[in-house]
Write a structure and sequence with these properties.
Blueprint (H helix, E strand, L loop, with lengths): L1 H13 L5 H11 L5 H11 L11 H13 L15 H15 L27 E2 L2 E3 L5 E3 L6 E6 L2 E6 L2 E5 L11 E5 L4 E6 L5 E4 L4 E5 L7 E12 L8 E5 L2 E5 L3 E6 L5 E8 L2 E4 L6 E3 L3 E6 L5 E5 L2 H4 L6 E8 H12 L2 E4 L7 E7 L4 H9 L5 E5 L2 E5 L1
Parallel strand pairs: 1-8, 6-8, 11-12, 21-24
Antiparallel strand pairs: 2-3, 2-7, 4-5, 5-6, 7-10, 8-9, 9-11, 10-11, 11-14, 12-13, 13-16, 14-15, 15-18, 16-17, 18-19, 20-22, 23-24
């Protein structure tokens, strides 16, 4: 519980929104045996108003981590459910915040030496804005190479591309229409945004696809999703909007929510940001969500349950971030595989450790892996297009 709150307060500080009351709360949380050095460094950071003097370099970041780790006891897994290797997780949070803007030493203090990497870190460019549009006749349009402007006419609807965003523009009311279906698909290492004919906006994550009518007709507006998407649904009370992902159905009127349903994950997760949605799965009673909740449908059992969600973490990708809050290394590497278009293999007894970290989705792969390696719990090498994860 303490770790989660400390991480939350540190993120708020990095965003410049930490209140005086929260500063005092952080000081109390850190005033516990074994946290003296870390507390002193954080207190120095919080007490300094001139944030620009704490700009960090990669060398200083690595040295700071070495000094923190050297001052503490060896890592042990806590017997308490809330204990998640506190020092390692907190150190990763501090380093991730520092890498973007802040440093935890006094401005004039310099590291005694630089920790040199023993081998070159695996490198890969981040994903980009790319997708393929499949038209009614199964012809394919490579959207990243298509120029701005008119793309195709589908059932009377004009398909337009502008600055990496695809839009379906219906003809004037009363015009003759025929319902046809298109599908947009992103590869690993791709993302794309599409505006449907009713004005609904869909952000499609990597290795995902959306099948949809070029114009909506009938009582409901229905689309089919694979992978992950964030939806901002245009309100139309007379025509409910429904998303089908495998055998799970999400029904909405007007709302914003995220759906993550990759088949290699543990379940289909629907996270509600605003409005309301109803999630239905075979063999389970339908669940109505309120903002801040998510519904999980387990892949193995089909069980459906509702929990409080970490909305910032579950929608970070749409806002251009890779964010983990006490997330297992295998779950992290599945996201890495999709966004950086790499394969992953595990060798040896890789610890079942949770990590907390935030980096930009525009950063190269090496930055994220370097931060994870600083815990000394995992190490990475690369063979061809495959990342090898080892203890």
């Amino acid at each position: 519980m303490d770790q989660h709150r400390i991480n939350q307060i540190l993120r708020q500080y990095a965003s410049g929104v930490l209140t005086e009351e929260e500063k005092r709360e952080l000081e109390q949380l850190l005033a516990q045996p074994g946290r003296e050095e870390l507390a002193e460094r954080i207190a120095a950071m919080i007490g300094e108003d001139d944030h620009t003097s704490y700009t960090v370099t990669e060398e200083i970041t690595q040295e700071t981590f070495r000094r923190i780790m050297a001052a503490d006891k060896p890592l042990r897994r806590s017997t308490q459910p809330a204990g998640r290797w506190w020092l390692a997780a907190a150190a990763v949070v501090l380093l991730c915040l520092a890498a973007g803007a802040y440093f935890l030493l006094d401005p004039g203090e310099q590291p005694a030496q630089t920790v040199q990497q023993q081998q070159e870190m695996p490198e890969k460019d981040p994903g980009r804005n790319t997708a393929v549009l499949y038209l009614e006749d199964n012809s394919a349009v490579e959207l990243d190479s298509a120029g701005n402007g008119f793309v195709a006419a589908q059932g009377g609807t004009s398909v337009m591309l502008a600055n990496g965003e695809l839009a379906y523009v219906p003809p004037p009311e009363g015009s003759s229409l025929s319902v046809t279906y298109n599908r947009i698909a992103t590869p690993r290492g791709g993302e794309f945004t599409i505006i449907l004919s009713d004005g609904t906006k869909v952000w499609l994550n990597a290795a995902s696809s959306l099948r949809f009518p070029t114009v909506f007709s009938g009582e409901k507006r229905e689309v089919e999703l694979t992978g992950e998407a964030y939806l901002q649904v245009a309100e139309d009370k007379a025509h409910p909007f429904e998303v089908k992902i495998r055998d799970v159905n999400i029904a909405v009127l007007g709302t914003q929510f995220n759906i993550m349903g990759y088949e290699d994950e543990t379940g289909i997760v629907t996270t509600l940001v605003s409005g309301s949605v109803r999630v239905t799965a075979p063999g389970s009673e339908a669940k109505l969500l309120v903002p801040g909740q998510h519904a999980v449908v387990e892949n193995k059992t089909g069980a459906l349950y509702v929990e409080k969600a970490d909305v910032a973490e579950e929608t970070a990708w749409k806002n251009g971030s890779i964010h983990f809050e006490r997330v297992n290394i295998r779950q992290i590497m599945r996201q890495v595989s999709r966004w950086y278009d790499v394969d992953v293999q595990y060798r040896g007894n890789v610890a079942d450790m949770d990590f907390t970290c935030t980096v930009s989705r525009r950063d190269k792969l090496s930055k994220l892996l370097t931060l994870l390696e600083m815990t000394a719990a995992v190490h990475f090498t690369m063979e061809g297009n495959t990342i090898i994860v080892q203890p």
